[in-house]
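4.2 Preliminary Data

To establish feasibility before requesting continued support, the project team ran the inverse folding procedure on a target of 369 residues. The structure was first converted into the token representation described in Section 3, and no sequence information of any kind was made available to the design step. The complete token record follows.
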């Protein structure tokens, strides 16, 4: 069975990285995908030296959701999974309903996994989910990382990994595969009415866009989109690694003595109550030239990574491009202000420092010098 083969591979990897008798929890909704995954984990966990359990999250968004959760938990117990945890959550009303439910669900995954000592939470995303994610990312005009789609595994909490065994390309697991598995095993999946609600963009992609593309372009559309995610992820991983090494090599802590003098000139005091000097980073003239010679994809990623890792700020593409102009189109222009950061080029060097308060006020102070 394809699903068991995919699960066997994921559990073997988990066993190799964990000591003792690791616990893997299936994130179980009761739908065909997660139910088929639960059955495969129940069949394969013992052979892999892993304990298989289940976590059912009741979002409380529909009448009778508690009964649906208990029915899913009952099937998990019948399959032999233990422990089986049912957790009711509150979904915030702010933001989009899909995003809010997802955030609350993954918070519950993290909390329960930590409580019971699980090493991993397994979710049942398939190649169909991956294809939908790629189309949505393309429609938003997203970059390579978003087009790379849903990652096969990622950290969830301290000591806990989120694993998606059914996302791989060998074997390729589709929604039809999981439905067939449930029918073969005599399992009764729950059909979530939200999965038919066309007010959600993902449902419109699933119910209308992908079938239309398949009719017009052939039945391999889903597989092709999912394969595009695989290729994009390889590229994104390579570019991100390159950008990380660029940041480590090019970025230097700004000299404390010179920063003290700058503070005294700029603000009339050498005091630095907010510790701004310690948070300033610079790229010297020689390294700025190196940054300018890099491919744009690497340069933009390096700037984005610098902002995130050194200043805790997530920049948009517009922000990174504005900073990049100080490298690629330098013509003596003044500082660039982006959320939380002020970037200045002077004497061929770039200096990155935290921006406190209004950029307009900060620019006026520096212009008055």
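Position-by-position output of the design step:
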């Amino acid at each position: 069975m394809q699903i068991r083969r995919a699960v066997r591979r994921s559990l073997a990897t988990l066993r190799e990285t964990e000591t003792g008798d690791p616990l893997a929890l299936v994130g179980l909704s009761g739908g065909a995908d997660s139910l088929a995954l639960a059955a495969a984990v129940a069949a394969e966990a013992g052979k892999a030296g892993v304990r298989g359990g289940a976590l059912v999250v009741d979002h409380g968004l529909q009448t009778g959701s508690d009964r649906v959760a208990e029915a899913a938990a009952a099937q998990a117990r019948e399959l032999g999974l233990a422990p089986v945890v049912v957790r009711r959550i509150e979904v915030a009303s702010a933001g989009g309903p899909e995003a809010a439910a997802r955030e609350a669900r993954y918070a519950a995954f993290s909390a329960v996994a930590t409580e019971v000592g699980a090493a991993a939470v397994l979710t049942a995303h398939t190649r169909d989910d991956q294809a939908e994610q790629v189309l949505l990312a393309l429609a938003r005009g997203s970059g390579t990382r978003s087009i790379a789609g849903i990652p096969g595994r990622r950290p969830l909490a301290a000591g806990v990994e989120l694993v998606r065994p059914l996302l791989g390309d060998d074997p390729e697991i589709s929604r039809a595969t999981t439905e067939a598995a449930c029918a073969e095993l005599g399992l009764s999946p729950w059909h979530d009415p939200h999965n038919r609600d066309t007010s959600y963009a993902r449902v419109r992609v699933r119910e209308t866009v992908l079938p239309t593309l398949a009719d017009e372009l052939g039945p391999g559309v889903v597989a092709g989109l999912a394969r595009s995610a695989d290729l994009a992820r390889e590229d994104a991983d390579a570019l991100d690694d390159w950008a990380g090494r660029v940041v480590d090599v090019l970025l230097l802590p700004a000299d404390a003595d010179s920063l003290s003098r700058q503070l005294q000139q700029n603000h009339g005091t050498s005091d630095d109550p907010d510790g701004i000097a310690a948070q300033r980073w610079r790229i010297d003239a020689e390294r700025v030239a190196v940054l300018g010679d890099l491919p744009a994809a690497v340069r933009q990623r390096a700037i984005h990574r610098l902002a995130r890792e050194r200043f805790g700020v997530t920049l948009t593409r517009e922000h990174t491009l504005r900073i990049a102009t100080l490298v690629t189109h330098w013509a003596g222009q003044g500082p660039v202000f982006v959320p939380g950061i002020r970037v200045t080029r002077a004497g061929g060097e770039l200096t990155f420092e935290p921006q406190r308060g209004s950029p307009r006020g900060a620019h006026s102070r520096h212009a008055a010098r």
